[in-house]
Amino acid sequence: FSPLTYNDQTLALKQAKKVVSIQRKIKKHHLVLCVTDKGYNFYIGTEKEFDKKAQNLFQDTNAFIELKENPFNKIQDNVIHLLNKIRAKNFIFQWQCNKMMPNRIKCQLAHLYFNPKTHKDGIPVRPIENTIHAPTTNISNYLDEIIRPTFDKECQNTTIIDGSSLIQALHQYMRKGLFKSTTLFCTFDIRNLYTMLPQEEALNILIEFLNIHGYTKVKGIPLET
């Protein structure tokens, strides 16, 4: 709230004029201006070109469909009905039900947007699913809260989370006498991993993982639930 200096006022006005000028040019020439997938720079291109990149991703993954109507109310009602149903059958406690219940005021329809990968040939786009206020987000957050510690505990010897844990793993490998001049290192990347994961199979693998480690419930919630 303190008054700006004359130089700061002049600078602010210049920047405001630049922003307005950029907005006019974007609108006039039908351009898209957005942040890139990696780095602190911007992508600019035509709307037609950007839409083509999105369509290419749709065809490549076959993981998305364009909705003809807004499914938000139906999704929210289904989530609330499901939570009330499993609560009525005493599969979860009331406080767990409350924690996972969507907030009708704050909830929004999840939506898709794209970040251009300017570091790759042809500048493809990465799909970003914004689900931060989706009706299912509270369920996701709670399940992550109760299952992640189990995973961290059971898989700590085989999980590398950062450079430091990689160095520690290599030291253990060396102490066992397994690190030799013929040792091969392999890295791999899965294209469109998160859009290609089969959901039912992922759930089955999760249940199998918990069963193998002797869990029939997690925080009182049966695995079937």
From TrEMBL:
It comes from the Eukaryota. It comes from Rotaria socialis. This is Reverse transcriptase. PANTHER family: REVERSE TRANSCRIPTASE, REVERSE TRANSCRIPTASE DOMAIN-CONTAINING PROTEIN. The lineage of its organism: Eukaryota, Metazoa, Spiralia, Gnathifera, Rotifera.
